[in-house]
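Thread: "does anyone have the structure for this chain?"

Original post by V.I.:
We have the sequence but no experimental structure in hand. Need at least a predicted one for the grant figures.
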Amino acid sequence: FKAEEGLDLEQKVQIAEMINLKGNENLKEYYNVYQSLHRFYKTRGYKKAKRKLEKIIATAAESKLKPIKTLGETLTKWKEEILNHFSTRLTNGRTEGFNGLAKLLGSSSN
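Reply from O.Q.:
Generated one for you, tokens below.
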């Protein structure tokens, strides 16, 4: 999927037609969760982000789809860490980069 703001009108229409077809209810739910997460990470401000995250978690908890329920559980587990991003605007990208480099170096030395 692409973020909605990256789609042109024709693509938006095609997606709407596809996810609204009878029998595509699961696809529609996955698409909606993806888009809500994308919008969530563009949120400015801790309080607003907290409200949006709590809504995503509540929606996930009500889902009949196991992967979405699991996502909700994961978001709940990491809620404070996720919300810290909205106070500091920092991510763990640098740490992940160093971990990747360490694994690469470790595997090439064998």
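V.I.: this helps a lot. Residues 25-41 form the longest helix (17 residues).
O.Q.: and The mean pLDDT is 87.
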